[in-house]
Amino acid sequence: MPDETPSQIERRVLQEQTLKLxxxxxxxxxxxxxxxxxxxxxxxxRLDALAQVVGELKxxxxxxxxxxxxxxxxxxTDIERxxxxxxxxxxxxxxxxxxxxxxxxxxxxxxxxxxxxxxQRGHS
Length: 124
What we know:
By secondary structure, this protein is mostly helical. Helices cover 93% and strands 0% of the residues. The chain has 2 domains: 1-86; 88-124.
């Protein structure tokens, strides 16, 4: 453009530079948008997989809780049955006295026999 003034040339150069900068920025933004879109799709896939795993775990946990509740009920029933058969100290006291008396009598008989043997050997 031969009949342009220097200010027009400067303006045209600035416009061309601005257009190039905008074009470059737009191209970069498109690339960034494509990368972001790809990343979002990957994250969506991972989130779907994670949701599936969480759903499976939720089912497993629910099953485990039901099983534990059943086991606890069984254990409680067993403990209650055992408590019904439990011998209290008051009921056991007479049995304890008889057993201790019999054990004491046996020990006394053994000690008496040992002393008799020792005394007989001492006089022989």
